[in-house]
Amino acid sequence: MIVVMKENATMAELGQVLKALEDKGFQPRPNHGAQRTVIGIMEAGEGDLLELANMAGVEQISPLSSKFKMVSKDFKSDPTVVSVADFKIGGSEFVVMAGPCGVESTEQLLSTARQVKACGGRILRGGAYKPRTSPYSFQGLREEGLKILAQARNETGLPVITEIISPELVPLVARYSDILQIGSRNMQNYALLEAVGKERKPVMLKRGLMSTIEEMLLAAEYLMSGGNTQVMLCERGIRTFEKATRNTLDLSAVSVIKSMSHLPVIVDPSHAVGHVDYVADMCRASVASGADGIIIETHPNPAEALSDGPQSLTFSAFDELMISLRPVAQAMGRNMVERPEK
């Protein structure tokens, strides 16, 4: 259920409604929009709230009809804007996250971080824990990789995003990372979703490789129902019969998600196509689709990368891509951070 407050409702009236809900044993979740405040009560039925309808400042009480409650536009009509460092994701800026698939060494990551910063990237990506299909593949440097990410952030000022793979690692990864990433393999790892939902750091949830949009939104509901409102969704390609690319990039998901949810949408062209020849085109298409940002892979020497080398951009290719993205972003009414002076 949701309680919709009147546009001119005072803070005192809001406080009285919240207290009435708490007195009934509910946990109200107020959302302050540009025009009015909406209070979500996930545990209540319509009959539980009838007496609130006559309270001062209350406009209406209505059910949340969708399966996903806090993620839906019924709960929050204004787009969610996620704050990271000194900028925002989901507003007017198109944000680029870039870096290697895996943190391999201090030298590798620092050189990449400097290049990402020099080209106008906003966030440094890099995997410290790498869940891989084969147990014999590079699994990441783990805590040492987290420390290298923190070192790169300290040197360049770039906030970092890295994947978290199990509930027990949440406190450790949250200590080092600015954004917690839940990978496609863990989209429906409900214990992990519940643990990350208790954190108050931004989180990016990737779509499972064979998951529907509704399933992804319900996974995001786990995060938000736990109290974490700083949630972003990521389209990273889904598995289909097509073999020309690693996965099939579902750019229509950007429009569909934005019609159903208020959460920002990021696109991952690197994992979607799996081949460097197609990454730049899909990055530009991601901007045109209305996405709020992209997360891509770049590496100082892709041929020697320990993971995902075939889809990683060289530094020069990343620089060219960033230049080409700006006019597309401008055409879509989005801005990108100015390139620092070299």
Explain this structure to me?
The chain has 2 domains: 2-62, Alpha-Beta Plaits; 82-331, Aldolase class I (TIM Barrel, Alpha-Beta Barrel), CATH 3.20.20.70. It has 10 helices and 14 strands. Helix 2 (106-118) packs parallel to helix 3, helix 5 (190-197) packs across helix 6 (213-225) and helix 9 (276-288) packs parallel to helix 10 (315-331). It has 342 residues and is α/β, with parallel strands linked by helices. The strands form 3 sheets. Strands 7-8-9-10-11-12-13-14 form an 8-stranded parallel β-barrel, surrounded by 7 helices. A 4-stranded antiparallel β-sheet has the order 2-3-1-4. The chain has a two-stranded antiparallel ribbon with strand order 5-6.
Number of domains: 2
Poorly predicted segments: none
Radius of gyration: 21 Å
**Most strands sheet:** 8 strands, parallel, barrel
From the helix content, strand content and strand pairing, which structural class follows?
A: alpha/beta
In the CATH hierarchy, the third-tier topology of the largest domain is known as TIM Barrel
Succession of helices and strands: EHEEEEEEHEHEHEHEHEHEHHEH
Count of separate DSSP helical elements? 10
Number of strands: 14
Helix content: 25-40%
Overall CATH class of the largest domain: Alpha Beta
What gross morphology would you assign? elongated
* Distance linking N and C termini: 54 Å
Mean pLDDT: 92
CATH homologous superfamily classification of the largest domain: Aldolase class I
Approximately how much beta-strand content do the residues carry?
Answer: 15-25%
What strand order characterises the main sheet?
A: 7-8-9-10-11-12-13-14
The name of the CATH architecture of the largest domain is: Alpha-Beta Barrel
